[in-house]
Amino acid sequence: MNQTTSTTAGAARSSMKKVQGMIQVALFGAIIVIMAFTPFLGYIPLGFTRATIIHIPVILGSLLLGPKKGAALGAIFGLTSLINNTMNPTVTSFVFTPFYSLGEVSGGIGSLIICFVPRILVGILPYYVYRLFEKSRKKTGVSAAGLIASGVCGALVNTLLVMNLIFVFFRDAYAAANNVAESAVYSFILSVIGINGVPEAIVAGVLTLCIGKVLMRKNIRARLGVSK
């Protein structure tokens, strides 16, 4: 009888934990969706591309909830990019969605890889970067350096992978869409990384530090139902 009761209680706790985890992912996912579909908030059009700060809740979700849930949040980020570039395209949206064409150029499997793989990694790598900094510290508490490094890492993973995968899959079409000579397309990509990616990384580092210092506190994590 006692064993049966214990088994039932354990199953109930496990079920409760799963529901709690789903709620946590849904909460961060809702923030991502709101940012993505609020004009000039999540995706900021720059003509040749879009700047974004949607990686911030993905990074914070990774730090709080762990890499598995962070990967799910990254996938949501990728899905919003796919939808945005399909429904509200720019001249280079074909690199993010197989459902948009520019003249004879259309997206394909490469578009899906570009859209999802870097964003999923944004939800995974910052967690391990922060843990690395946390383990190297002698004192307990929130690691400010770890938060900054995690934010910068998440932003750079997104920008560097996206832009380099564009070069791998769509270099000629991307050059044509931006009126750039094919021989100069990687130089153009590097300029986008500098103009777009570096400021995004700085902003990500600052915001992850400011918001993370609050969210990573033990009492706040407990209120959110997040264990260490």
From TrEMBL:
The keyword Lipid metabolism does not apply. It comes from Sellimonas caecigallum. Gene3D superfamilies: 1.10.1760.20. The lineage of its organism: Bacteria, Bacillati, Bacillota, Clostridia, Lachnospirales. The chain crosses the membrane at residues 21-41, 47-65, 72-96, 108-130, 142-170, 185-211. InterPro entries: ECF_trnsprt_substrate-spec (IPR024529). This is ECF transporter S component. It comes from the Bacteria. Keywords: Membrane, Transmembrane, Transmembrane helix.
